[in-house]
Amino acid sequence: MQRSTTLRALTLAGLLAPAAMIPAHATAANADVSAGDWLLRGGLTHVAPKSDNGNLDASGLGLSANAPADVGSNTRPSGNITYMMTDNLGLELLVAIPFKHDLNVGGVDIGSTRHLPPTLSLQYHFNTGTAVRPYIGAGINYTHFFDEDTADVTGQDIDLDDSWGAAVQAGIDFAVDENWFVNAEVRWIDIETDVSLGTADLGTVKIDPWTFGMNVGYRF
């Protein structure tokens, strides 16, 4: 838990660093958005699953019938696009290159999986008349797990079911000029998946990650 908390704190501090890189003349830029604007962002997202991912029946792996599961973190290129429906309300779609997570049960690596996490969110943008524009959002996430790579433990395939869940976010855009801006954001996503080994159900893994993103954006 301490390792996970420290990692999140350091990552969030790093994501806020773009504010320090804004040149002095950026204070004259206005980050306010208007109805009909499109906001395109691209950068990196770090996915940090919570530290306690639940317990699985790993007796089929020669382990405990109540073994703790652990899902590794990962960082990948990502992007999102927002359409401003009004001066304050925007609809955002999050996309990314597939994330890869290592899976560990009872201290034994059992394989890895990739996932795609498209997320649709309704955002509220706080127009401030300055170079800084914070926003918050909430929506729904669909996580598709695929390409499970099973470690040579039993020779059986591991499968993870797809997941639907809620997602919330907060972010800040920093205007560099009339169109370009830099962005830092954080999200929490409700992701739970049922895990099976061959035909045997092992149980449910609760991933529920925090994600931290740093992006460059363009308004048009």
Automatic annotation (TrEMBL):
This protein's GO CC annotations: outer membrane
Coiled coil location: none
Any matching Pfam family: OmpW
Keyword field: Signal
Gene Ontology terms: biological process: transmembrane transport
Keyword Oxidoreductase: no
Signal peptide as annotated in the record: 1-28
Membrane-traversing stretches: none
SUPFAM superfamilies reported in the protein's UniProt record: OMPA-like (SSF56925)
Keyword Signal: yes
Protein name: Membrane protein
Species, as recorded: Thioalkalivibrio versutus
